[in-house]
Design goal:
By secondary structure, the chain is α+β, with helices and mostly antiparallel strands. The protein has four helices and five strands. The chain has a five-stranded antiparallel β-sheet with strand order 3-2-1-4-5.
């Protein structure tokens, strides 16, 4: 059971690493930021305000113009306005930046790659896999 739980978390972390690596193979393309602002919203009437950096940027692929809106592969809101403001500061309107465009679907683009942090924490659940297998082997040998 210990090994299975550890294996589940190893798998989940490897999935995260795979998703983070996805954009690293995309084509680097020059982009121009056309809009950059902090947007606040209240998802439900009783929830606290959520802040999101709304960044739009234009780029060309094969002579065709595209408009991107993703800073990262998966963007989300935060209850911390300063996080959204930091993104807006990095990508002010009018700035010329690089974006990464999916060569198979040029309508998909990001300004930043995802974090590889899951790779750095992979060792911890791997210890549970090794320990669980060790416990099982020892138990079977004892019989």
């Amino acid at each position: 059971v210990v090994a299975m739980i550890g294996a589940f978390f190893v798998y989940a972390l490897l999935l995260g690493v795979g998703k983070a690596r996805e954009t690293r193979g995309w084509q680097e393309t020059p982009c121009v930021v056309s809009r950059s602002e902090v947007v606040e919203a209240r998802p439900t009437p009783n929830s606290p305000l959520a802040y999101r950096a709304a960044v739009e940027y234009g780029y060309r692929v094969g002579g065709e113009r595209f408009l991107g809106t993703n800073v990262k592969r998966v963007d989300g809101s935060s209850s911390h306005a300063e996080r959204a403001a930091a993104v807006v500061e990095r990508y002010p309107a009018g700035a010329q930046v690089s974006c990464w465009v999916d060569p198979e679907d040029p309508a998909r683009a990001v300004l930043e790659h995802g974090t590889m942090a899951p790779l750095y924490t992979l060792w911890f659940p791997a210890l549970f896999v090794v320990a669980g297998v060790g416990i099982a082997v020892r138990a079977l040998r004892g019989r």
